[in-house]
Amino acid sequence: MKVIYIWIFCLLSSMIFAQPTAVIFDCDGVLVDSGMLHYRAWKEVLKKRGIELSVGEYTPMFGKVSEEMISYLKELKGVELCPCVIEEKRKSFEFFFQEASELFIEEMCEWAKKIKGQGYKTALASAGAHSQIQQYLQSAGLQGVFDVVLSGKDDLGEYKDPEGVNKPKPYIYLKAAKLLSVEPSDCLVFEDSWAGVLAGKEAGMYVVAVPYPFTSSQGAQVLADYVLDDLHTESLRQAMESFQ
Predict the structure, then answer these.
(1) How far apart are CA 111 and CA 31, in angstroms?
(2) Of 70, 75, 93, 166, which one has the fewest beta carbons inside 10 Å?
(3) Low-confidence ranges of the chain (pLDDT < 50)
(4) Where are the beta strands (DSSP E) in the chain?
(5) Which residues, in sequence order, are CB contacts of 239 under 8 Å at separation 6+?
(6) 12-34: string of b/e by CB count within 10 Å (b at 16+)?
(7) Is the distance from CB of 221 to CB of 209 less than 8 angstroms?
(8) Residue 157: other Cβ atoms inside 10 A
(9) What is the pLDDT of residue 6?
(10) Is the distance from CB of 228 to CB of 216 less than 8 angstroms?
(11) Using CA atoms, how far apart are residues 233 and 236, in angstroms rounded to an integer?
(12) H-assigned helices in 17-105
């Protein structure tokens, strides 16, 4: 009987005090308020070609790679765009980025620093290009905060998938766990987009949906394990404590 009591106590303790070993952050929409900049960049590129794009038309694609955006525009607008527009859009975004102020989501940036200070293993897993990620980290003062920094566009060459390897595929999160030397089930992910939340879930991780205007209508909340209503410190702490 004593053995049974000890087993029950250990089981309940593991449920009550379960904590992630690693915390992984998405970038755009979680640490960086880049939605309007990406929209303006696409709008400028398309306007040169006589194509109008509203915010409402763009929001379903925020958080997805440019190649998917081209396919989306073909279906939405009936236009065939040269892949060269991707580089043009990137340069346009760079211009808007340099002019922008108050670009970073302060609550999440400070939370990432706090998590690192508390001894958690940390990673940043973004669908964007590595060069852009590094620019973000330098501008936000987040260099050294993440043990692992991964780009879904540049760092997943070892994976082969005919449908692509970037989010919503789980590969970036699986690689992050591998590089952190942790099991995916021991990771908590902060994500805002449908593609990102699905990627985290498919990787077998606990995913917290972060509220962000450009992705709030994508349905990520339905897929997530926990949904944040705001970014107050207490809310973020509760999200961490919800891990199981």
Answers:
(1) 10
(2) 75
(3) 3, 5-16
(4) 22-25, 121-126, 148-151, 187-191, 206-209, 226-227
(5) 188, 208, 226, 228
(6) eeeeeeeebebbbbbbbbbbbbb
(7) yes
(8) 7
(9) 44
(10) no
(11) 5
(12) 35-47, 55-58, 66-77, 84-99
Q: In what order do the strands lie in the sheet with 22-25?
A: 148-151, 121-126, 22-25, 187-191, 206-209, 226-227
Task: Give the tokens for residue 37.
Answer: 């900049």
Beta bridge partners of 208: 190, 226
**How open is the CA angle 133-152-196, to the nearest 5 degrees?**
95
Domains belonging to the chain, first-starting first, are 20-33+103-241 (3.40.50.1000), 35-99 (1.10.150.240)
User: What CA–CA distance (Å, rounded) separates 137 from 126?
Assistant: 12
**Residue 190 near residue 122, CB atoms below 8 Å:** no
| Secondary structure class of 80 (helix, strand, coil) | coil
For the question of whether the overall pTM of this predicted structure is more than 0.85, the answer is yes
- 28: DSSP letter: B
- What is the DSSP code (8-state) at residue 9? H
Conformational region of residue 57, where left means phi above 0, alpha means psi within -120 to 50, and beta covers everything else: alpha
72-90 pLDDT per residue, tens: 999 999 999 999 999 999 9
Cis peptide before 213 (omega within 30 of 0): no
pLDDT at 107: 97
Give the model's pLDDT for residue 99.
87
3-state secondary structure of 190: strand
CA–CA distance, 210 with 30 (Å, rounded to integer) = 7
Report d(CA 202, CA 27) in Å as an integer: 19
